[in-house]
Recover the amino acids of this structure.
């Protein structure tokens, strides 16, 4: 399937990057505990409450480390994407599914497969980076992380676009949309936290 990144998505990513970098300057050693660091960092994301809900239980492992925070956010998004892909795959046998709906489901399964692959690649690449590291190789790897995570967000949006129009309305669309939207929100938050990590270098 031919894919293109919508101008609105590009503007969103640029906005998220700028906002994250600006707000990240207020984060750092002044926070008294690990949970407060996670909470403050999540304020730089598009969905701060969801971010804190998803990541606060990992605060003791994150320990006020921006790279570890971004890595954990990617891991959470990857796990959510895997679960969503399985869920959408099960919808292929949804009772009363129409031919058009079945096509949309099949396309969505493909998109979510791409999402899983890209998030997995992003997480693997991010694990190679160390706190305080910089240099040409660092920025090349970080660029890969940003590109793959942004592409995963595009895949998720493309899946949802396949269910556009009133003809697709109904329980099947609602069920799938609920799962994919959650993945997209987690991915968006992970991208913002990657930008927070980048702003430290």
């Amino acid at each position: 399937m031919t894919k293109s990144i919508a101008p609105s998505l590009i503007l969103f990513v640029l906005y998220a990057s700028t906002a994250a970098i600006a707000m990240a300057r207020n984060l750092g050693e002044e926070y008294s505990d690990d949970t407060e660091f996670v909470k403050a960092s999540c304020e730089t994301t598009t969905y701060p409450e969801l971010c804190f809900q998803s990541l606060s239980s990992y605060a003791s492992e994150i320990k006020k480390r921006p790279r570890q925070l971004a890595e954990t956010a990617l891991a959470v998004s990857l796990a959510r994407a895997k679960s969503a892909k399985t869920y959408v795959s099960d919808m292929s046998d949804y009772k009363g599914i129409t031919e058009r709906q079945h096509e949309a489901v099949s396309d969505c399964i493909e998109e979510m497969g791409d999402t899983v692959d890209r998030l997995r690649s992003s997480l693997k690449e991010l694990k190679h980076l160390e706190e305080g590291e910089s240099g040409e190789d660092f920025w090349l790897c970080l660029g890969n992380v940003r590109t793959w995570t942004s592409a995963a967000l595009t895949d998720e949006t493309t899946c949802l676009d396949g269910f556009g129009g009133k003809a697709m309305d109904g329980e099947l669309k609602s069920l799938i949309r609920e799962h994919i939207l959650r993945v997209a929100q987690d991915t968006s938050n992970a991208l913002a936290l990657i930008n927070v990590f980048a702003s430290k270098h």
Observations:
- DSSP finds eight helices and no strands in the chain.
- Confidence is low (pLDDT under 50) at residues 1-7, 10-14, 24-30.
- Helices lie at 7-24, 34-42, 48-55, 59-62, 66-90, 99-127, 136-161, 171-199.
